[in-house]
Amino acid sequence: MSAPKSNAPVRQGLSRRQFIGETLKTACAVGLVGLGLGLYSRRASSLPAWALRPPGALAEEDFDGACIRCGLCVRDCPYDMLHLARLGQDIPTGTPYFIAREAGCEMCEDIPCVVACPTNALDHALTDIRDADMGLAVLIDQEACIAFQGLRCEVCFNICPVRNEAISLNLQHNARSGKHALFIPVVHSEHCTGCGKCEEACILDQAAIKVLPRHLAQGKLGEHYRLGWEQKQQAGGALVAPDAEHRYNLPEGMRYDHAGEGLIDAPASAPADTPFPANPLDSLNRRGPL
Amino acid sequence: MTDYPGKTAVAEQGWLKAHRFLLLRRFNQFGVLFMFLLGPLFGAWLVTGTLSSSMTLDILPLTDPLLLTQSMLSGTWPAMTGLIGALLVLVFYAVLGGRVFCSWVCPVNLITDLAAWLRRRFDIRSGARLSRNLRWWLLGLVLAFPPLTGVMVWEYVNPVSMLHRGLIFGFGWAWLILLAVFLYDLFLVRRGWCGHLCPVGACYALIGAKSPVHVAATGRERCDDCMDCFDICPEPQVIKPALKGAAAGLGPRIASLDCTRCGRCIDVCSKDVFQLKIKS
C-alpha cells in the first residue's frame, strides 16, 4: 500500500478506528459483566417456599423488580416479625420476608407495612387485611397431626385470625374407638390469608400445618369439569335425558328401562339391532359399522 | 513520613484549616449514619429505613431516585411517599451538586477514602488504568436490567446499599463486597470504585449537572504548581481545565460533572487558590 500523503487523514483515521475499537472493547466487557450479573440474579432472585412475603406483596416476579430493599416495612411492623434478607441467605438479598413457624403476621387492621412501602411492591391497593394473600395454610402431615389420632387439639383452629372461616373443624367418625369423633381442621382457601399463625402455634415439634405459596399449595380442577348436582340445581332439573335408551349388548330376550327399574323381560320378537359384528376380530379390523 | 498533599498548607496555615472540609465531611457522613443507627442501636427511631428509602420523624420521606427509577422501569408505579421522597432528593442534589452525595453522605466513601489514604501513605503505585467513562456504561446497564429482566439486578451487588443496609440490618456476607471494593481501590485502580465504576455516583452526577454550587480556582494566578490538589482529588481530571485553562478561556469554575465538591483541594492548597462558590 502506498503511504498517505499527509499526516492529518492518518491521524484522523487511526483515532476513529481507535475510538470504535475502544468502544467495542468496553461494550464487550460491560456486556460480559451484565451477562454475569444477569445470570447471578436469576439464581439469587428465587424465593424458597418457607419464606413468606409481607401482606400485599406483588407476585414474586413483579416484587423482585419493584422492591428497593429499604427496610421500611420491616421497621414499621409493630410485632417485629419481618426481616430483611442478608447476602448469603437463600432469599433475595435485602428483601423483606417472614418465617411463619417463628412468628406469623398478626394481621394489623391498618397494615402499617404496606403503608410504609414507597414503591407499591407491597401494593397499597390492599386496604382490608382479610384480602391479604401471603400464602395458603395446608395441613400437610395428616400422620403427625394429633387431630387425626382422635385427640382434641384445635390450636390452629382457635388461633386463626379468621376463625371458623379460614379453618373449620370437620367432624369425622373415629374408626379406632368406634364411638368417638375426629375433629379435623380443614383450611378454606378463599378465606385463608397465609398469615402463618396456625403454623406458628402448631403444638407439634414440627408443624403439621404449614403455609406455602399458593402455586405450590393449590390444585386446580380442569376447566371442562361440570359438577352434575350443581348443574342440575342451576338448570332446575336433570340435564341428561332420563330415559337414555340402552339397546346394545343386553342379555338376550331383555330390554332396559331405568324408570321401569332396569332390565325387563321382553318377547324375543325383533332381534336387537347391534352395531357390533358377530366376529370381534372384524370390529378390531374396522370392518363393522364402528 | 514522606511528603503528603497538604503538608505545606498544614505548616503554613495550621492543621485545622488544612482539614476543615475533611472534618466537616466526616462529621456529616458519620452524622447521617448515626441518625440511621439511633433506632437500631438505642431504640430512638428518628429515622427509619436506609439510604435506599427512609422516613424521618414520620413526616419526611426520602427515596433514592436511581432505585425508584429502577423500580418504575420494572413496571410498578410507586406510592406517593416514594415519589415525593425521590423528588425531594432530586431537588436537594440538583441544587447542591449531585456528587455531594458521594463525598458527604455515601458510606462507601469512607472505605474508598481509606484505601486512597493508604495508597498515598504507603506509596502504592501498582494497578491498572481504567476509563472513567465506565460508570456511564454501568449506569446504562443498571437501568437496562429492570425492563429487560423484570429484576432489580443491581441491588444484588450494589456496594452502597449493601454497606448501609448492612450497618443497619446486618451484613450477612455483604461485607465481602465491601472488602472487594476496598482491595480493588487499594491495589488495582486508584479511586477505582467511586471515580471509575460506581453507577450510583454517575446518576447523582447527572442529577447535579446544573447545580449552581461549585468549587472554583478563583486564585489560580497564585498557583505554584505544587500538585497537592491533583494528588488529593478523587477526580483529578476535573481540576486541570479550571486551574490551568485561563489561556483557553476555561474556568475558574470546576465545571465537570465528576467533581464531588469534597473540598479537599481547598483544604490542601497553601495558596488559597480554591473556593466554594455559588453561581449568581
TrEMBL record, chain A:
Keywords carried by this UniProt record: 4Fe-4S, Electron transport, Iron, Iron-sulfur, Metal-binding, Repeat, Transport
CDD domains according to UniProt: DMSOR_beta_like
One Gene Ontology MF term: metal ion binding
Gene3D superfamilies hit by this protein: 3.30.70.20
Domain 4Fe-4S ferredoxin-type: 57-87, 95-127, 136-172, 183-214
InterPro entries the record matches: 4Fe4S_Fe-S-bd, 4Fe4S_Fe_S_CS, MauM_NapG, RnfB_subfamily, TAT_signal
Domain of life: Bacteria
Region (Disordered): 265-290
Name used for this protein in its record: Ferredoxin-type protein NapG
Source organism: Thiohalocapsa marina
Automatic annotation (TrEMBL), chain B:
GO CC annotations on file: plasma membrane
Keywords: 4Fe-4S, Electron transport, Iron, Iron-sulfur, Membrane, Metal-binding, Repeat, Transmembrane, Transmembrane helix, Transport
Pfam families noted in UniProt: Fer4_5, Fer4_7
Presence of keyword rRNA processing: no
Bilayer-crossing regions: 30-57, 77-96, 134-154, 166-187
InterPro entries per record: 4Fe4S_Fe-S-bd, 4Fe4S_Fe_S_CS, Electron_Trans/Redox, NapH_MauN
Record-annotated 4Fe-4S ferredoxin-type domain positions: 214-244, 250-279
ATP-binding is among the record's keywords: no
Domain of life: Bacteria
GO molecular function: 4 iron, 4 sulfur cluster binding; metal ion binding
Name recorded for this polypeptide: Quinol dehydrogenase ferredoxin subunit NapH
Species name: Thiohalocapsa marina
Lineage: Bacteria, Pseudomonadati, Pseudomonadota, Gammaproteobacteria, Chromatiales
